[in-house]
Amino acid sequence: MAPSPGRVPLQNRIRLITELGRRAGVSHWLARDDGDGRELYALQVSAGPGGGRRRAQQVAVRYLRQSVYLHSVDPGCFPVSVGAFTAGGNVWCVEERPSGRPLGDFVAHHRVSRPHAARIGLAMLRTLSLAHTKGIVRGFIAPEQVWIGRSGAVVLSGSGCGELLASGCVPLLPRARTLAPEISSRSPLEPAADLWAFGRILAFLLVGNVNPSRDEAARDPAVRLVRGLMREEKDARPSASAARRALLRILSEEDCFSGVPPRPTAPPGPAFPVS
Predict the structure, then answer these.
(1) pTM for this model (two decimals)
(2) For residues 28 and 67, which has the higher predicted lDDT (pLDDT)?
């Protein structure tokens, strides 16, 4: 985490405190509302010049409406939206900070077991599937947008980021391999894009819990699931229901073999796609 340099508060009240992380041209911040003291999460995406900024503002307004709607559907899964606007050549999407810790920080301080990774994955799938039933697709999920509460609850912030990236109104980094292929090709977002992004989160969670040998990795159900989710061809990716069944199998297998010595803690090497 990087502290923010001295900046003028956004909208004269939203003060950036700490940068949680940056990937694929997207920055994630902890912030504070100077007006009422609320702790906030702010997502920053660089907008293109001219028409790109106008288009970005339109997408940001649509994101704001979606966020307000999702929070009304399930406040436990989606945070309160504070605002979406353009400032200084950037698009900003601001929400109340969810309780708990962002996944990147959580993993940095905890060794996540395979069962725990599967449970987090199942909770994420429930949240994503709920959004899909309302016609809303994220298309992009970073560890800084996944919040783990003390009770194990999972909250997803920054729901409009993928739509901003795919809309053509913001520049993309060349060969940004943290983005679903649909975003890089500026294709319309469908639920399969969320499953690709979900696969990256699973890979992030499972590092250190997968045997790095090629033969063992090929038989590992967790590796097979991640590789399937991150296929280039969207129609070749497993559905959310298939991914849910695979995670439940991983949980049941871990329960059956809980007395077996733990798996190697070495990084997974070639088990997952290169980031």
Answers:
(1) 0.83
(2) 28
